[in-house]
Every structure is written in structure tokens, then in C-alpha cells.
Write a structure and sequence with these properties.
It comes from Aliikangiella maris. This is M90 family metallopeptidase. The structure is a single chain. The protein is α/β, with parallel strands linked by helices. It has two domains: 154 residues, Glucose-regulated metallo-peptidase M90, N-terminal domain (Cyclin A, domain 1), CATH 1.10.472; 85 residues, 3-Layer(aba) Sandwich (Collagenase (Catalytic Domain)), CATH 3.40.390. It is built from ten helices and six strands. The chain has a four-stranded mixed sheet with strand order 1-2-6-5. Strands 3-4 form a two-stranded antiparallel ribbon.
């Protein structure tokens, strides 16, 4: 076989691989979803994720299937001496997969690793202060989302967030909302949306974001954490936490914001 024929054959094989890969992945995921959900995982959900049993039966089944695929595809890595167990994996996955119910999903396609610390962790970032001077900034965080395939979480905060599902604070939901946001590039508060919904999303979320900024300046009580006033990306993540954990309060406080999030996430947690 001549070198030219070999190159042509390799090109054909490469094209076939690219074209067939999505079908192979879909087939593999379907096989995973058809497996029985492990009994020990059900016990973890019962113990650590009480909101699971408030959900409609069809969403419970869907969530379990998403958990199976998520755990088959994502790698958990422990830091600071923490040992990765099924309790950690299932508890975190159950919260992350809430955000992809009822929607076509590629299971956070850019995400490869979930880094888990025992408690809140310290990060160092370089940034400019108000005078434009470059500073090395140290922060204590319970979670962080990176746009190159990693989410970092505190296990203690992740576990507490799942157990107390009524306070509007959930680090896993927050960081995985950032992952959805980052699927279109850098996080900017505008995840992938159908073209016909982009205008309403932009106008309604911008208005709600500005209202939160004004409340923060005036020191007024707010359902949404003031951290959401930092920028549109943080607003989307904070609003997502409240949408899933305090849906009836969000409906009462801002029906337009609730409706936009309900349309995006394709669920209505206010009736769970």
C-alpha cells in the first residue's frame, strides 16, 4: 500500500471516528442508565439527600440515571488527606445532576475532575486592586469552578448543603451552575439558550441583578445573597441556588426571574 493510500485510509478512519463518536457515547450512556441503581447508593441518598424523596417519581428515576452516568464519567480526587468514598461521590453527584434534569445534556462535557477538600480551602489569585497594583489575593472558599475541566469543593459544605435544602445556599449547585455558564466560554451569566429566549433572559436577569446591587448598597434584606451582586456570573449561580432550594419564596419575590430559571432548567421545584 502506497504512503498516499495509507494517508487516505487514516483520514477516512479519522472522519468515521469523529462522526460515530457521539453515537458510541450515547449508546454507552444508555447502557449505564439501564443498570440497577446500587442499594448502597440509595441508602446514601436517603441519609444525605432528603430532598430526593420530595421530587416526583419520574424525576427521581431520571436523577438516579444521571448520577450513574456522571459517576462513570467524572473522576473524583481527594486532597488534604480525604479519602474519596461512594458517600462523597453520590452526595455531590445528586446535587450536580439536579441542574440537568429534563434537558438534553452532555453531562458537563468540559468537566473531567472534581477535587474534594475536607473543609473550606485557601486559594491564591493574582489581581489588581483599586489603584491598579497587582496583588496576590488569598481567599477561603467552599467551592470553585474552573473553565478547564475542574470543580473544587469542600466536602463538609457539600454535605451540609444537601442536608439543609431550604436555606438557599448550596455550594454544589452554585459551582455547577458556573459549569453550565462556562460551556459557552467564560462565565458571564448567559449559559447556552435557544435564540428565541436570549432577549428575555438578558433583560429579566439584568434587571434582577441591578435590583440586587441596589439592595446591597442600601443594606436592604434580600432573598438572594449579596454575593450575587458581584457580577452577572455570580448572580446566575446564586439565583440557581435559591431557585432549587427556596422556589416558593423566589416566586413571591420575583416571578419573572423564577419563570426564566424554570424555563431554562425545565423543572418547577415550587410544586415538589
Amino acid at each position: 500500500m502506497s504512503p498516499l493510500m495509507i494517508i487516505g485510509l487514516l483520514a477516512v478512519l479519522l472522519i468515521a471516528y469523529v462522526l460515530l463518536k457521539p453515537y458510541w457515547i450515547a449508546h454507552k450512556r444508555q447502557k449505564i442508565r439501564q443498570r440497577p441503581f446500587e442499594k448502597s447508593w440509595r441508602e446514601i441518598l436517603k441519609r444525605n439527600v432528603p430532598y430526593f424523596y420530595r421530587m416526583p417519581a419520574d424525576l427521581q428515576l431520571q436523577l438516579k440515571q444521571h448520577i450513574q452516568v456522571f459517576l462513570a464519567e467524572k473522576q473524583f480526587v481527594g486532597f488534604k488527606g480525604i479519602e474519596i468514598t461512594d458517600e462523597i461521590r453520590v452526595t455531590i453527584a445528586a446535587q450536580a445532576c439536579l441542574l440537568i434534569l429534563n434537558r438534553p445534556t452532555d453531562y458537563y462535557s468540559k468537566l473531567r475532575y472534581i477535587y474534594v477538600y475536607p473543609v473550606a480551602f485557601i486559594t491564591h489569585h493574582s489581581g489588581h486592586d483599586g489603584a491598579g497594583v497587582l496583588q496576590n489575593q488569598k481567599r477561603v472558599l467552599s467551592g470553585e469552578s474552573w473553565n478547564h475541566g475542574k470543580v473544587v469543593l469542600s466536602w463538609r459544605d457539600s454535605k451540609e448543603g444537601a442536608k439543609d435544602f431550604n436555606d438557599g445556599r448550596n455550594v454544589v449547585i452554585h459551582e455547577f451552575a458556573h459549569q453550565l455558564d462556562q460551556e459557552t466560554g467564560s462565565a458571564n451569566g448567559a449559559p447556552y439558550l435557544p435564540n428565541n429566549s436570549q432577549h428575555n433572559w438578558s433583560s429579566i436577569l439584568t434587571k434582577a441583578f441591578q435590583e440586587l446591587q441596589q439592595r446591597a448598597v442600601r443594606g436592604e434584606p434580600s432573598l438572594l445573597d449579596y454575593y450575587g451582586a458581584t457580577n452577572p456570573a455570580e448572580f446566575f449561580a446564586v439565583a440557581s441556588e435559591v431557585f432549587f432550594e427556596q422556589p416558593t419564596q423566589l416566586q413571591r419575590d420575583s416571578i419573572e426571574l423564577y419563570q426564566q430559571l424554570s424555563q431554562y432548567y425545565q423543572v418547577n421545584p415550587a410544586i415538589w
